[in-house]
Amino acid sequence: MKLQDIPKIKHTYSNNFFLLAGPCAIEGEDMAFRIAERVVNITNKLEIPYIFKGSFKKANRSRIDSFTGIGDEKALEILAKVSEKFDVPTVTDIHEVSDAAMAAQYVDVLQIPAFLVRQTDLVVAAAKTDKVVNLKKGQFMSPEAMKHAVQKVKDTGSDKVWITDRGTMFGYQDMIVDFRGIPTMREYAPTILDVTHSLQQPNQSAGVTGGRPDMIETIARAGIVNHVDGLFIETHFDPANAKSDGANMLHLDNLEPLLTNLVSIRKTINKL
Questions:
Q1: What's the Cα-to-Cα distance from 77 to each of 6, 186, 196, rounded to whole Å?
Q2: Alpha-carbon separation of residue 261 from 217, 267, 268 (angstroms)
Q3: Residue 69: its pLDDT value, please?
Q4: Which of 7, 88, 167, 253 has a 20 to 30 Å separation from 43 between CA atoms?
Q5: What does the pLDDT read at residue 206?
């Protein structure tokens, strides 16, 4: 598929990487609008094709008392409002087969979480909605194994599929990005680097995932140099008080300087 086929996406002829960015979870309408407005302004300025990201629910938390959402339909309606108000496409992740048709009524891209990317029924249900399906590589999977997940989408008759690398487990409590996998996965589908989740430090004794946000620019730069098609970045104006994944999120104030540097690197790479 072509990026320009996604409704409302802009700057597709800028020869830039595309960006999926927003909060980990939709916490409310005001916060979603505040983040979306800022990112839209930045990406328009830098001519970056942009898709607003927000999870309508979080089903894979470490502890049962962790925040999971504000209500499925309420959060999905907020995603639809973001799309309408700011004229941008949106992406959210799904966790159950029944989520696919429901979420497809509100968003443009359905994301399969890394823990669930081998769940055939879920992948197929997403593909059958005719939305773009973003397959997050399992932390436990090789890049080569992702060709089978991609094929599940293609076997439904759809070519609307992306792969996102979100790091690979390194021991029990750390993640690492193996950049050798980027060219491999790009043979199967357009490939995105999930910068912020790749810096998670999971399985902490407190039951709350840690992270290394200080390394965001390092990992993002390496992704651009290695020709990723897109970047995935979770961002929030108050990461310390975000209800999900605050430990590895990028502060919204740091997004523009980061993207400015990455666009400059991309322009250099395009000349090589």
A1: 19, 33, 26
A2: 9, 10, 11
A3: 87
A4: 167
A5: 64
